[in-house]
Amino acid sequence: MRNHATPGGILLYETSTAGTAQRPSEAHTIRTDFTQDQRHMPHDNAESQASDRDYPLLADNFKAATTGAFSDTTPSTLTVVSSLAILVGGLVGIGAGVGLYFLQLGPEWIKLLQLPGTLFIRALVCLVLPLVFCVMTVVVAQMAAIGRSTIMRWQTIVPFAFTSIIATVEGFVLALLFRSGFHITFATSASSSTTTTAGAAFNLTLKCANGLFLASTGNNSLACIGTDTEPAAVFRAANQTTATTGGDLSMASFMNLVVGVAKIVVPDNIFASFASGALLSIVVFAVPLGIATAAVSPQGDEPNHILVLFRQLRDIFQRMLQAILVTTPVAVAFLIASSIANFDRGYTSDTMTQLGYLFVAFLTGTLFHSLVVLPLFVLVMTRSNPFVYFHQLLPAYLFAFGSASSLATVPMMVECINRAKISRAIAHVTMPFGTPVNLNGAGIYYPLAMVFMAHVAGTGDQWTVARFVVLFILSWIGGVATAPVPNGGILYLMILWPTCFPSTPMPPSFQLLFAADFIFDRICTIVNIHGNAAVTRILADQIDETFEVQAAAHV
Predict the structure, then answer these.
(1) How does it sit in the membrane (predicted)?
(2) What percent of the chain has pLDDT over 70?
(3) HSE-up of 86 (CA within 13 Å, CB side)?
(4) Residue 389 is inside which H or E element, if any?
(5) How far apart are alpha carbons 129 and 359 in whole angstroms?
(6) CATH number for the domain whose boundaries are 83-183+251-271+278-542
(7) Which of 15, 42, 269, 503 suits 348 as a labelling partner, its CA being 20 to 30 A distant?
(8) Domain ranges of the chain
(9) What is the rounded distance in angstroms from the CA atom of residue 8 to the CA atom of residue 3?
(10) What span, in angstroms and rounded, lies between the C-alpha atoms of 184 and 193?
(11) What is the value of pTM for the model shown?
């Protein structure tokens, strides 16, 4: 291969003209830094001058004209782990998990079994967040440099919103169809729950960190010196509000959720967003940062040093990610084995029947959405066979099932999309953006889970039209409010229930969903990334990508 410097200072790679050399589009490895030889391409069609997978956008090297030569090494590309290896790891995990389940391991052994998989997910999330940040900044900067915002237009949001709404509608319809099959297993109702009314007085003690209780010292001060039996440590409290006495919807809870989502979109501390793993905040922050980075580009042949830094950081994170992904099959085996071995065996056959009924309803919705709705959407929008494209994504699907984390699956999904000859530039925008805001699996799951919990707990008669409307809206909003990490759905259900039933505590049926979350969460993750991959395919067909080479030459 030979390196050629363009006038903008970017080194492009072209293949050898030898007859035995393999053309870039025919290579079997995943690459990020190759462009087709422009001399052998027709020039009467501008779009044909840039392959949708071979371009310098995400791996360009710079050479400073005045400050000495600079050429970073070619970034190592992510190897897509064999589908067979991941499948074998999953099967080993299932077999080992079933065996360990009957051995009835203690909680300490379960923690040890979970450790390898937990460390794997933590390492992935640790690298994915800064990698997504750097990639988004570079992509946006290069688009802004030539005044092209093709990917960042409102039409880009439409496919995401469409798939998300359709998934929520499917889950809502299934919940209404299957709710007659859910019957009371736990004898719980709203009337049996305790609620605090205005003016009701009760005794209260406050325990301090030193193990003692807050008590009066006799000189109009308080100190942590008492025991719970001392009269001085017992306070008389009276509820002066009626916030918990309403039997209908809590508008305050609904508004708090909406405000919380808005605060995620506009963070007040980007470093706190990195620490908390708020991917949406990071993606939103990267957009104006990329635009500002392009705006301060120096004149002449001098490279944009800020953008060079982001590119180098991106390449570093990719190399580190490569080393972690090699261990994927082993990590998948531990993740699945620990989940099965930790399943609670204390449920009755009737309870398990109800859970199985929920699983059938959920599986029906996810299969219909994944095998009918999304492929039909791709077929109509692109006029191409969607299953040929989805077949290339099999390693990412298997990885998603093992990791149960949409966020951790992003790097592998991007590689698989690139292997399917879809632009990595578009995938690096749509996947990080869609991962926190377009969770199709969650949209199907939340209505089913809420109706299941209410009916099994004996509060199914409390569903009203208003509650169903709020459930639909919040299930759709859940695509943004749910963290794309393992058990993120369970955390959102803990917010969703008190919003719909503010005067009813979390029912015992929630424990069923918590115990079975290891399988529901994994299926949700597959559907989530499947929906984002479908949108990526549609946008790749609609967006003019000839700006890529131009962008690289302008930054």
Answers:
(1) Multi-pass membrane protein
(2) 66
(3) 19
(4) helix 386-391
(5) 32
(6) 1.10.3860.10
(7) 503
(8) 1-56, 83-183+251-271+278-542, 201-238
(9) 14
(10) 16
(11) 0.63
Beta bridge partners of 224: 214
What CA–CA distance (Å, rounded) separates 109 from 517? 20
- DSSP result, 467-531: HHHHHHHHHHHHHHHS-SSTTHHHHHHHHHHHHH-TTSPPPTHHHHHHHTHHHHHHHHHHHHHHH
Per 3-state DSSP, the chain is made up of helix, strand and coil in percentages (nearest 5) of 65, 5, 30
Smallest Cα–Cα separation from 77: which of 333, 411, 303?
411
d(CA 259, CA 481): 11
CA dist., res. 460 & res. 183, Å (int)? 9
DSSP state of 14: E
Q: Are 500 and 242 in contact (CB under 8 A)?
A: no
Both tokens of residue 429? 């925008």
Instruction: Compute the Cα dihedral for 316, 322, 327, 331 and give only its sign.
Output: positive
pLDDT tens digits, one per residue of 27-39 = 343 333 333 343 4
Mind listing the pLDDT tens digit for each residue in 64-88?
A: 333 333 333 334 445 556 667 878 8
Task: Put residue 299 in one of left, alpha, beta given phi > 0 → left and psi -120 to 50 → alpha.
Answer: beta
Collapsing DSSP to helix, strand or coil, 241 comes out as coil
Q: Give yes or no for a contact between 174 and 365, defined as CB atoms under 8 angstroms apart.
A: yes
For residues 40 and 158, the model is more confident at 158
Q: What is the dihedral of CA 189, 192, 198, 203, to 10 degrees?
A: -140
Buried b (16+ CB within 10 A) or exposed e, 458-474: bbbebbeeebbebbbeb
For residue 321, the one-letter residue type is: L
